[in-house]
Amino acid sequence: MAKFREYDIEAMEEVYDLGKALASPVRLEMLQLLYDKSLIIGEIAKEMNLPASSAAFHAKILEKAGLIRMEEQPGTRGTTKLCTRKVDYLHVGLVRKKAVVTEIVSIEMPVGAFTGCKVKPTCGLWSLNGVVGNEDMEQCFYYPEKSKAGILWTSAGYVEYKFPNEVPKKKTPQKICFLAEICSEAPGYREDWKSDITVWINEKECGTWTSPGDFGAKRGRLNSSIWPDGSSQYGLWTTWEVDKNGCYVNGEKVANRTIDELDLMSNVFVKVRIGNKNDATYVGGFNLFGKDWGDYRQDLVMTIES
């Protein structure tokens, strides 16, 4: 897979280091040498007919620019440096970004791509090939095939996802939204089966929505013919939002917690948990529907404005 790296004109020192690294035919030849293999400094020196000290000097400049990686390896006389190329393509942005411009990062996550869970029968997962493992068996939520699931359900507990955090490092998140097609989970289905469904972002509670029921009286418009009647068929498209002023569910403010409290820029992922609190008034479970199930052709969605 090709490796990309972006450089921003506002990070002047990084761009200067890049320019310096590329302004030498020797270093350009060294990058070509490292195209499809890793070499230690001594091997580079031999291939390029250079003194080892010169090869190390040029490699250090390439490393500072972020173009190669140098790792210490045991050698016949102490340690040596193994050099590996880090970048295949460069993009240098020469336009200064305006601070007032809003950037939006949007990620869709398959329903079956959860990274953690706690489930309770009735529970299960289905893909377009049929049931994953068996229904009402918690261990099936750990099968590798779970990643292909387009619908999952549990009568209590939670599932947790890690969305990649692609907000530019210099930006400050202003709003985060989590969207899902969801409903309650009753055995079979019950249109009046309530469930208090909560979302946590980075382990901070961000609001509870009360699902009015587990909908199965009509078929979901996207459901495969293999999905049986008499089961949950579709959910309601539901939105959790957190901004500088508080938390909102479907546009209604439900809490005062702000986006700054979520500490979104502290990690390379954003952790989103959805489920029932143990002390909820209505512990009615939940169904999650992916883009080939239910009524809406979308997986779980997280967006961040910055």
Task: Describe it.
The chain has 306 residues and is mainly beta. Helices cover 13% and strands 36% of the residues. The protein contains 4 helices and 20 strands. Strands 6, 8, 9, 10, 12, 15, 16, 17, 19 and 20 form a 10-stranded antiparallel β-sheet that branches. Strand 15 (236-243) and strand 16 form a beta hairpin. Helix 1 (12-22) packs antiparallel against helix 4 and helix 3 crosses helix 4 (52-64). The longest helix has 13 residues, at 52-64. The chain is elongated. The mean pLDDT is 93.
Structural features:
single chain; 306 residues; mainly beta; ten-stranded antiparallel sheet; five-stranded antiparallel sheet; 4 helices; 20 strands; 13% helix; 36% strand
List the helices and strands and how they pair.
Blueprint: E1 4-8, H1 12-22, H2 25-33, E2 39-40, H3 41-48, H4 52-64, E3 68-74, E4 79-85, E5 89-93, E6 104-109, E7 116-119, E8 123-127, E9 130-131, E10 151-154, E11 157-164, E12 175-183, E13 195-201, E14 204-211, E15 236-243, E16 247-249, E17 252-255, E18 269-275, E19 286-289, E20 300-305
Helix pairs in contact: 1-4, 3-4
Q: Flag low-confidence runs.
A: none
What proportion of the residues form beta strands (DSSP E)?
35-45%
* Morphology: elongated
Q: Nearest-angstrom radius of gyration?
A: 26 Å
Order of helices and strands: EHHEHHEEEEEEEEEEEEEEEEEE
Instruction: Give the mean pLDDT.
Output: 93
DSSP, total strands: 20
What is the number of helices? 4
Proportion of residues in helical segments: 10-25%
Helix and strand composition category: mainly beta
Largest sheet composition: 10 strands, antiparallel
Determine the N-to-C terminus distance. Answer: 29 Å
